[in-house]
Design brief:
The complex is a heterodimer of chains A (about 130) and B (about 130). Chain A contains two helices and three strands. Chain A has about 130 residues and is mainly alpha-helical. The mean pLDDT of chain A is about 75. Chain B has one domain: Diaminopimelate Epimerase, Chain A, domain 1, CATH 3.10.310. Helix content of chain B is about 50%, strand content about 15%. Chain B has five helices and three strands, in the order αβαββααα. Chain B starts with 8 loop residues before the first helix and ends in an 11-residue tail after the last helix. Classes of the chains: A mainly alpha (about 130), B alpha+beta (about 130). The interface between A and B is large, with 37 and 67 residues.
Chain lengths: ~130, ~130
């Protein structure tokens, strides 16, 4: 525990001085507020109206919660719709690299020729 | 997921770029269909492949059925010589893994890249027997 070459009494003294100084300064600072306020003169404000009370104690928390919720949702809003496995697929179909060179929605595919290739390929499930 | 577009403009662009890159690398024609199918996925994929018409021979069609959770890869006769069924199977498994995590665009672009790499490799014309 005791580091060789460093006298323990010195460490103790340093710790005691630090603790005392911290405690003293903290006490002074804490006491300074009320002490300074003793002689202060001011006019107390009028009573809060019902609307003001509502705004402060209900409106402000709700507004804060709404801002936080918005910040949480923002990334996924920016990223756009996302496919979720297991949910039903409500989106329009899309064909990239369609024969005519463009892209078509599935609704535009009205007739398809019968399959010609006995060709290869593979399939997978998830 | 709201009805309408499954891909944002940026995602669609990524898919188009992946297709263009794969085509430039291999000289094959790549086509990706994402959505519902009428009937069984495999026959429908082969019909879509046939719809590539004169490109069908060199064509690789990838069908993704998000609701039935199926990936189908159909290769034409010439395309199959470059992209054998084993490589196609590996790519479709990789795509399926990405899709299972909900990443359609990433799965498509990765799968296309894998297929392009496999097809860009010179075909093995002769195989040694192991001795």
């Amino acid at each position: 525990m005791n580091a060789p070459g460093r006298p323990r009494p010195f460490v103790r003294l340093a710790a005691a001085v630090t603790t005392a100084a911290t405690g003293g300064i903290a006490t002074l600072l804490l006491a300074a507020g009320p002490v300074a306020a003793v002689g202060e003169r001011g006019t107390p404000g009028g009573k809060l109206s019902a609307a003001e009370t509502f705004a402060i104690f209900v409106g402000a928390p709700v507004a804060v919660a709404a801002i936080i919720a918005f910040l949480v949702v923002l990334p996924s809003m920016v990223r756009g719709p996302r496919y979720r496995p297991g949910r039903s697929w409500a989106s329009a179909s899309r064909w990239f690299g369609e024969p005519a060179g463009g892209e078509v929605a599935a609704e535009a595919i009205t007739s398809l020729p019968p399959a010609t290739v006995e060709g290869g390929g593979a399939s997978a499930r998830w | 997921m709201p009805a309408g577009e499954a891909f944002t403009a940026h995602q669609a662009l990524q898919v188009r770029q992946a297709i263009a890159a794969a085509e430039a690398e291999t000289g094959l024609t790549f086509s990706v269909y994402v959505g519902r199918v009428h009937g069984e996925p495999r026959p429908y994929a082969m019909q879509l492949h046939a719809a590539l018409a004169d490109q069908a021979d060199r064509g690789v069609l990838v069908l993704i059925e998000p609701e039935a959770r199926r990936v189908e890869v159909v290769t034409g006769e010439t395309a199959r010589r470059r992209l054998d069924d084993r490589a196609a199977g590996l790519a479709s498994l990789s795509m399926a893994t990405s899709f299972a995590g909900g990443d359609l665009t990433g799965g498509i672009t990765n799968g296309l890249r894998m297929m392009a790499q496999a097809a860009a490799r010179p075909p093995v014309l002769h195989q040694h027997d192991s001795d």
